Amino acid sequence: MVARRRRQGRAVSVILILLLVIGLVIGLVAGSGSSASRFGHAPPPGAPPPIVAPVALMDLAAQDARAANALQPFVSGGFPAATPFRFTGDTLNAARAVDCLAAAVLYEAGDDADGQRAVAQVVINRARHPAFPKSICGVVFQGSERTTGCQFTFTCDGALNRRWSEAAWERARGIAIDMLNGATFPQVGLATHYHTDWVRPYWSPSLDKLAQVGTHLFFRWPGGWGAPRAYDGQINGQEPVIGKLASLSAVHAAGATAAGLIVPSQEDGPRTSVNSVVSTILPRRNVQLGDTIILTLDRSQPAASFPVLAQAACGTRSYCKVMGWTDPALVPSGEVMNDTTRAAMSFSYLRDEARGLERALWNCQQFAREAPGQCMRR
User: Fold this and answer.
1) Is the distance from CB of 323 to CB of 314 less than 8 angstroms?
2) Regarding predicted confidence, which is higher, 260 or 250?
3) What distance in Å separates the CA atoms of residue 128 and residue 130, rounded to the nearest whole number?
4) What is the dihedral of CA 286, 287, 291, 292, to 10 degrees?
């Protein structure tokens, strides 16, 4: 009985491999021609973009999936790189985009810089393509309401319950900021799909296989929908709040806007680049003394954006104190400061979860606030 089952199991594996080869041949015929000829075409005029179905995997053991994946060749003749992408939007949306992208690269690729850049490039490619949502967070969390079949596995398989170190999170945020401010990862070109080499999605044989980074294989659609001209879409600059990131990201936490701390309006200032808004929160550009963070703030940015930066800089700390100055010449190197420096402080933020306290205060001689309770004491 056992031997018969083993023979039957081997027979099923052989049949599956044969089916995969047939599917691969069909996919190659459909996408025949040189790589250069394929990526030079535009999408058919008026044609709807490809349907993005829930991810479904072939029922294959890991070793069989690897064998099937190895049979599918990489495209020949090279492929074009993505053009630089720069996020533009208000302060709050920029901060949300950064944290959505940081979560994607960290939970999909781990604490590996090249793997993270490759994943980030796929997210950005999708946001520019008409087949996908027009926001960074929308792309990352597409299908996350399902228990299986989500576009990025970490959003629906419980991976977010596992917490990475704060250092790893900050490294991921640094890569997210760079990629949203024009960096590219040409090694994966215009890839819109990827999977690990030990699984085999049903869509894999029909797409162009571009590259491998670590254990991830990267793909794009063949023909016009994988051509550079298909990636000319503009994201809308409106990033949704993602409840699943609440424990990881202050700007996605429930009640963040209800608390009145992070509601920058259009009247507070113009749309701006993610680099000018968010780069100031990186540890290498500021002073961190334990749970105290000293920020150099940009006076041209809306005052309502300062709590966004403070909350993002604090990350997941239960206790955190932030002090910010808009005059770089007066930014202290530590908590000990003279009266002139203290009087010039532009903004302060305190989070103390043990006491249930979260408070943001402004220097109202520099930034007018409607509520007197938001002003520092003088």
Assistant:
1) no
2) 250
3) 7
4) -100
Task: Single out the residue of 122, 79, 22 nearest to residue 222, CA to CA.
Answer: 79
Show the DSSP H helices in the chain as ranges: 2-30, 35-39, 62-71, 91-109, 113-128, 136-140, 166-179, 274-278, 306-314, 339-343
> Which residue, 240, 236, 235, is CA-closest to 96?
240
pLDDT tier for residue 286 given thresholds of 50, 70 and 90: low
CA 28 to chain centre: 31
DSSP assignment of 115-150 equals HHHHHHHHHHHHHHSTTS-SSHHHHHTTTTTSSS--
Strands 357-362 and 347-352, how do they pair? antiparallel
Rounded CA separation 152/291 (Å): 33
Q: Measured between alpha carbons, how far is residue 11 from residues 3, 17, 70 in Å?
A: 12, 10, 20
SS3 42: coil
The pLDDT assigned to 287 comes to: 54
Residue 310's alpha-carbon distances to 60, 122, 164, 334, 377, in angstroms, are: 47, 29, 20, 17, 20
| pLDDT band at residue 323 under the 50/70/90 scheme | very high
Q: How many CB atoms lie within 10 A of CB 80?
A: 17
Find the mean pLDDT for residues 345-363: 93
* Cα(200)–Cα(216) distance, integer angstroms: 11
Amino acid at 27: G
| Cα–Cα distance measured from residue 350 to residue 359, given in angstroms and rounded to the nearest whole number | 5
Contact 136, 123 (CB under 8 A): yes
Give the tens place of pLDDT for each residue, 209-249.
999 999 999 999 999 999 999 999 888 889 999 999 988 88
Helix axes of 91-109 and 306-314: crossing angle, nearest 10 degrees? 20
Residue 328 structure tokens: 């770089």
Phi/psi for 186 (5° steps) reads -65, -15
CA distance 169 to 172: 5
Q: Where are the beta strands (DSSP E) in 260-318?
A: 272-273, 287-289, 292-296
* 3 state DSSP class of 4: helix
Look at residue 288 in the predicted model and tell me its pLDDT.
54
Length of the chain: 378
**Model-level pTM greater than 0.70?**
no
The answer to whether the CB of 4 falls within 8 A of the CB of 44 is no
